[in-house]
Amino acid sequence: MTAIRHDWTREEVRALLDLPFADLLSQAHAVHREHHDPNAVQVSTLLSIKTGGCPEDCAYCPQAARYATGVDAEKLMSLDAVLAKAKQAKAAGATRFCMGAAWRSPKDRDVPKVAAMIGAVKALGMETCATLGMLTDTQAHALKDAGLDYYNHNLDTAPEFYGEIIHTREYQDRLDTLGHVRDAGLKTCCGGIVGMGETRAERAGLLHTLATLPAHPDSVPINRLVQVKGTPLAGTKELDPFEFVRTIAVARVLMPASMVRLSAGRAEMSDELQALCFFAGANSIFYGEKLLTTGNPDTERDLALFDRLGIHALPVEVESGTVHADILDPAPSCAAA
After folding, report:
1. Which is the catalytic residue, given 96, 129, 266, 334?
2. CA–CA dist 16, 108 (Å, integer)
3. What is the pLDDT of residues 103-138, one digit of tens each?
4. What phi and psi, each to the nearest 5 degrees, are found at residue 23?
5. Whose CA, among 49, 53, 89, 321, lies 20 to 30 Å from 63?
6. Is the Cα torsion angle 189, 319, 179, 10 positive or negative in sign?
7. Residues 6+ apart with CB under 8 A from 138
8. What DSSP state is assigned to residue 164?
9. Has 277 been annotated as catalytic?
10. Mapping DSSP to helix (H, G, I), strand (E, B) and coil, where does residue 146 land?
């Protein structure tokens, strides 16, 4: 079986990205098949539990208070409202429920409220994930104690390109939060965004940073920039679709045991492009009509695509990188719930 390495060089990563397309996909698919069921996809649903009003200046983000994007600041959702959404997601076939809040970092008084949501969703038998901004060590442990399984905190881009996108926090701040999350015993969900005007060398820099973390992220979301009017990145030249597939493929080669997730930007992807991504090593998606504040393919389209490709959904509690025999069969009423 392909060895899991943490000593990749930037030159090796760039060389992978530069391979002929067919050669790269062949290598990535072989690695994927070694470590995962190639016809199984982990399905998550993402809910914005606190939308808008963020003080940060991330150039891609419609939730930043300083940009006129039409996203209004809202208060933290109630526990009952979040639980109702989680039940709806579970009924639609999602096995993981991620709660996102537009905070730079949560205040200590917010943590018990989110902890209550985590406990309630966990009681439904779903995996739990949260993305709340920067965390202290104490906050990370409190979320772990509440039953949180995964914490999402993306690096967004390469260290050398980061200053072109964000000025209100440092790259090291992101690495520090990931350290607190790992120290608390939480699984990490960490990836980035491509198509923000970065070069291929800078995409290599993002992938290299992810692959040389002290532990590979358990989930690696690869987002394709969704251009939102009012943000500084609106009007950016769109990333070539094949370049996006290359990014997925190299993520799979570098981090064989991780779940590689198709995240933002799927609404703009054709079925054929998504199928290429699944072949290249993507084996996780966000499922549902909305991704925080931007669109996502509706569940019926996803189910139809799964059915056409012969894909089925992974059950809850499948560990990253392990092929299980008890993969769920499609539910009778929906092609691949």
Report:
1. 129
2. 43
3. 999 999 999 999 999 999 999 999 899 999 999 999
4. -65, -40
5. 89
6. negative
7. 108
8. G
9. no
10. helix
